[in-house]
Design brief:
globular, disordered N terminus, Annexin V, domain 1, 459 residues, 51% helix
Length: 459
């Protein structure tokens, strides 16, 4: 269960700033997934992947506004230094380092594909305006969400290995895992294209015919790529009676505007109807309005600075909408958490606790209920410490009586796309639960399903 240690606790009791190099074999890769690592030009496979910019917790001073990139880094190397290379001076936001000249610091380095055009166009408008000073360069789409790219990488050998694993009598499941578990989204697309070109066959159809159960589900999720996987998850979450709220939260909350537009465009292209239409049909009342703000894709870009006056204003608005009045102004809270970027939300969370001596997470827990409560907590926790949040929702898929296998598959595959973020998530998981993520997965799964999930997390 996610508790106070994951939110306000760290700000007053920060963990030590040790750095732990990742295991051999997992170089940092460009392109984030779902906000992990951001977007921007990525080097092609084989030429050396750039390292996403990862920040640290802010210095211990009286400044209530964390600087840009203020996430704790678990198990990943310090920013601006290659593995094994000495740091070139103290990075911003580390203990003892001089603070940047302005709140928010310089925009972080971006990774991913530059978007000359997006899938789809923005739809809808937020019910409340974003904070002032929300300009800056737009956040680029995560790897797999931008326009199709041709990469300088030969996918032929992998395509041939996959065909050999499924041809004839029996299936070589270990070969399927070995080929597919460690590829990035662009490599997966190249493998699918090579498979079709060399054998005039559809890789996804062949895998479905040769595998079954959650092993099949995991392989198909990888073959689909992050964008199409998201789209099909959303459709299945709203298809039939009931709604899988956790899936909606996983896919839609905390996403960049670019990724959100890509998801909406691909959903329209795949199912010939708008995502907004289907979400409205499955949610109701104020929760529906909350998600319409989210789908409006009007979040402050990651490069937008943390402005002290705007943070102070948001803190007072949140107080007046919750503890400071009889009843709760739910939509104002939803609007603030849906239209501010992660750095701004992190600053709001810290400033709120310093001003009112109560964590914002506790306020949300006491003032809200149901799906809206869960969605707001997801937005807050993801912004305050995205790696620890990812660790806790992975645990959530395994905790209790029985494993939520579909949720576990979707979450493991989602986080495996960005290896640099995954190393931090694994470090956060071990810090919180005192065991490795891989060992926990082994205890909840079996057979080829187990081997695929463990390979995806890199062990």
């Amino acid at each position: 269960m996610y508790n106070q240690q994951s939110s306000g606790y760290y700000y007053n009791n920060p963990p030590p700033q040790g750095q732990y190099p990742p295991p051999q074999g997992y170089p940092p890769q460009g392109g984030g997934y779902g906000g992990y690592g951001g977007g921007g030009p990525a080097e092609l496979p084989g030429s050396g992947w750039p390292q996403p910019s990862q920040g640290h917790y802010p210095p211990q001073n009286n400044n209530p506004y964390p600087q840009q990139g203020g996430h704790q880094s678990y198990g990943a190397p310090p920013p601006h230094s290659g593995y094994g290379a000495p740091p070139q001076g103290p990075p911003h936001g580390q203990y003892g380092a001089p603070p940047p000249q302005q709140y928010g610091g310089p925009p972080p380095q971006q990774y991913g594909a530059p978007p000359p055009q997006q899938y789809g166009t923005p739809q809808g408008t937020p019910q409340f305006a974003p904070p002032p000073g929300g300009g800056g360069p737009p956040t680029q789409p995560s790897l797999g969400y931008g326009p199709p790219q041709i990469i300088q990488w030969d996918a032929g050998p992998d395509a041939q290995a996959l065909r050999a694993a499924m041809k004839g009598f029996g299936t070589n499941e270990k070969a399927l895992i070995q080929v597919l578990a460690n590829k990035d989204p662009l490599q997966v697309e190249a493998i699918k294209a090579a498979y079709s070109r060399l054998f005039n066959r559809n890789l996804e159809k062949d895998i479905k015919s040769e595998t079954s159960s959650y092993f099949e589900l995991g392989l198909v999720a990888i073959i689909s790529g992050p964008l199409l996987h998201d789209v099909h998850l959303l459709h299945s979450a709203m298809d039939g009676p009931g709604t899988k709220e956790k899936v909606l939260n996983d896919v839609l909350l905390g996403r960049s505007n670019a990724d959100m537009r890509a998801i909406k465009g691909m959903y329209q292209h795949t199912f010939n109807r708008s995502l907004e239409h289907d979400v409205k049909g499955d949610l109701s009342m104020k929760t529906e309005r909350h998600f319409m703000i989210v789908l409006g894709a009007c979040r402050a870009e990651d490069s937008a600075p943390v402005i002290p006056q705007a943070i102070d204003q948001d803190v007072m608005e949140l107080y007046r909408a919750t503890e400071g009045k009889m009843g709760t102004d739910e939509m104002l809270v939803c609007s603030i958490l849906s239209t501010r970027n992660d750095n701004q939300i992190r600053a709001i969370s810290r400033a709120y606790e310093q001003k009112f001596r109560r964590p914002l997470e506790e306020v949300i827990k006491s003032e809200f209920s149901g799906h809206m409560r869960d969605a707001l907590l997801f937005q807050l926790r993801n912004a305050v410490d995205r790696f620890m949040h990812a660790a806790t929702i992975l645990e959530d898929a395994m905790a209790g009586m029985g494993t939520k296998d579909q949720l576990l598959v979707s979450r493991v595959v989602r986080y495996h796309w960005d290896r640099h973020a995954l190393e931090n998530i694994k470090g956060a998981y071990k810090q919180r639960y005192r065991k490795s993520l891989a060992s926990r997965i082994r205890g909840e799964t079996s057979g080829d399903y187990e081997r695929l999930m463990v390979a995806c997390v890199g062990e």
